[in-house]
Each structure stands twice: as C-alpha cells, then as structure tokens.
Amino acid sequence: MTQISLAKCKVDQLVKLCEEFGNQEGELINVLHKAQELVGYLPREVQEVIARQLNIPVSKVYGVVTFYSFFTMTPKGEHPISVCMGTACYVRGAEKVLDEFKRVLKINVGETTADGKFSLTSLRCVGACGLAPVVLIGEKVYGRVTPGEVEKILKEFE
Predict the structure, then answer these.
(1) Which residues contact 58 (CB under 8 A, 6 or more apart)?
(2) Domain identity same for 89 and 145
(3) What is the pLDDT of residues 48-61, one digit of tens each?
(4) Phi, psi (degrees; rounded to nearest 5) at 82
C-alpha cells in the first residue's frame, strides 16, 4: 500500500469538519461524506484523523468505509465513469460496454488511468432503466450506449 502524507492544511480541515459535526460518533457517515468531498477519497490517514477526532477505533471507520459502495479508498479519476450493471442494462449489453471501456482505457473496474483522467466502476442500478444500458461520467448520463460509441464518448473529455 502506498503511504500518503496528508498536508497539514488538510488535516486541519478534517479536524474542523469533525468539530462541525460535534465530534459525535453518530455523525460518522456524514463526516465521511464530507471528508471524501474534501480529499477526493478516504485513504488510511484520513480515516485515522476521523477516528481520533470522533474517539472511535480506526477499525470502525474502516468498516463503514468498506461497507458502503459510495466510499472509496482509492483516488477517482478526474472523470469517474460508472457503467450500470442492473438487470435492464445487463440484458441490453452493459457488460460489452464495460468491456469496451476497459479495453480502450486499459484499466479494470476499480482502477484509474495512469494520467488520473478516468476511473472505472460498475453500479447495480441508476434508476434509468428505460435508457439501458446507461453510463455515467461524472454527473452526465449517457443512455442506450453501445460498445461502438465508447471512444466517441471519451473524446468529449479530451
């Protein structure tokens, strides 16, 4: 595991964030959401700061981070790509779309491109079944995506 060194200003911001939630253990999920917005992901050092501030074991923080799929312990790309793998999307070819993103970007699900531009994840359902298969890039929704459209979609982000 790569050791990161969190800048003192980030540590100070995390401490202040925890204080805004009263350093209350019951606010852990809210604190983690805000911390992930602040840092971009939740590496071990961030979890340690939060655990110390909320006076709870790091193992409890880690347990919450790893339980909820929204949280990530690895940095996301500048343009996070999520391919819906829910039933409607899967039946309409989402797996082939996901495979094409992996081929073009030369990364697997859960990874980020070397330049930090794209990261790739899959989701269970985005609730847009009528547009299946669906791809999210950041907040932008792409519907009825085919493998042949993947390179064209990625060019929008060059």
Answers:
(1) 44, 47, 48, 51
(2) yes
(3) 999 999 999 999 99
(4) -125, 125
Nearest by Cα to 60 from 31, 92, 17: 31
**CA gap 133, 82 in Å, rounded:** 11
Structural tokens at position 151: 């390179």
Helix, strand or coil, per DSSP, at residue 82: strand
Query: Which residue type does 69 have?
Result: S
Any idea what the CATH number is for the domain that residue 99 is in? 3.40.30.10
| 94 Cβ neighbours under 8 A, 6+ residues apart | 83, 84, 85, 132, 133, 134
Mean pLDDT of 14-24: 97
Q: Which domain holds residue 100?
A: 79-155
Q: Where is the domain boundary, 67, 95, 117?
A: 67
Residue 75 has pLDDT above 90, yes or no: no
Q: Identify any residues that bridge with 75 across adjacent strands, giving them in sequence order.
A: none
